[in-house]
Amino acid sequence: MNEPNPPRPASALDRRSFLAVTATGALAAAAAPALRAAAAAVPTAPAVARAPAPFELPALPYADNALDPVISAQTISFHYGKHHRAYLDNMNKMVAGSDLEKATLEQVVAAAAAGGADKSALFNNAAQAWNHTFYWNSLTPGGGGKPEGELLAKLEASFGSFDKWKEEFAAAAKTQFGSGWAWLVQDGAALKVVKTANAETPLTKGMKPLLTLDVWEHAYYLDWQNRRPDYVAAAIDKLLNWKFAAANLAKA
Ligand code: MN
């Protein structure tokens, strides 16, 4: 687990681009009503993880030891290699042979959310698959610091100052009771900090996620034990990927 990940093959990128262009139209023509509704519900969702069914575990965007010492290679080996993979494997079993088999991950999440209690297991696994890919991309070695340009201006307009934003995001991450996530989202014209429990994701609540931090214990316990506030502070200061957030903000 200490070898850097190989670069993603060009074919995977081409395939994602192709699907991003064609998936919504093809599904609208051919799919079941629940799926058509799901496709319509997420036209602007950040497309972070798409491969044809079975869904594949996306490569980490950095080596597994690149976030050390905030997040060790050992944590990555379990969190990415076991937890994230298990969510994906579970989802693949549930969508196999169903009308969601050819959907994008975002469409599976939306359809499962719309399906209520009957689809809660599918929602939990699909949303966690999406949330985790979004999380890996929300972090980067040498990250942290301060965003620039439009993103910084919007943060200052919505929170008063960048430091106030940091305080609010850290508070959300620290006070999420039990397992969950802290998020920076765009909600209409404003940027907001929200927290979600378990697998819940702003993706299904009409908000555009810009950044997230996983605060499930499996995200930090090997490195920080019960000191979630220290993990949160270190991740904010050293790992947040503001380029990823700015790219998400720029998406229509
Ligand atoms: Mn996690």
Structural notes for this entry:
- With 252 residues, this protein is mostly helical.
- The protein folds into two domains: 113 residues, Orthogonal Bundle (Helix Hairpins), CATH 1.10.287.990; 102 residues, Iron/manganese superoxide dismutase, C-terminal domain (minor pseudopilin epsh fold), CATH 3.55.40.
- It has ten helices and three strands.
- The protein has a three-stranded antiparallel beta sheet with strand order 2-1-3.
- The longest helix is centred in the middle third of the chain and has 23 residues.
- The N terminus is likely disordered.
- The site of manganese (II) ion (MN) has 7 residues, from helix 3.
Main sheet properties: 3 strands, antiparallel
In CATH terms, the superfamily of the largest domain is: Fe,Mn superoxide dismutase (SOD) domain
Distance between the termini: 37 Å
In total, the number of domains comes to 2
How would you sum up the global shape?
globular
| Ligand types | manganese (II) ion
CATH class of the largest domain: Mainly Alpha
CATH topology (fold) name of the largest domain? Helix Hairpins
Strand order of the largest sheet: 2-1-3
Write the CATH architecture name of the largest domain.
Orthogonal Bundle
Proportion of residues in extended strands = 5-15%
Order of helices and strands: HHHHHHHEEEHHH
Summed up, the helix count is 10
The number of strands is 3
Poorly predicted ranges = 1-32, 39-46
Mean pLDDT: 85
* Protein structure class: mainly alpha
Evaluate the radius of gyration: 18 Å
